[in-house]
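ok so for the tutorial part 2 we go from a plain amino acid sequence to predicted structure tokens. step 1 is just haveing the sequence, like this:
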Amino acid sequence: MEILKKPILTEKASILTEKLNRYAFQVDHRANKLQIKNAVEKMFDVHVKSVNTSVVTGKVKMRQTKTGISSGRAPKYKKAIITLNDGEVIDFYSTIQ
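step 2 — the prediction. this is what the tokens look like for a chain of 97 residues:
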């Protein structure tokens, strides 16, 4: 099971990073806080102070087609907000190959 799927790089998440030293990740929906903490510490070599998780429901999507209105929902996902100790940072762009 791959615990960390991808970082969330939105405007709101970047404000959290700049002001509070917090990082957002999309994680596996079966992962618990201890597994997420261990995965972040192992992958980025940092010390995690706390982990907060939430399940984000998908947006409702609708579109007009020839046969009428088609509606559905984007898939839900689990989000983890990681707080690091003071003075530590995660550089997402250094791991790109």
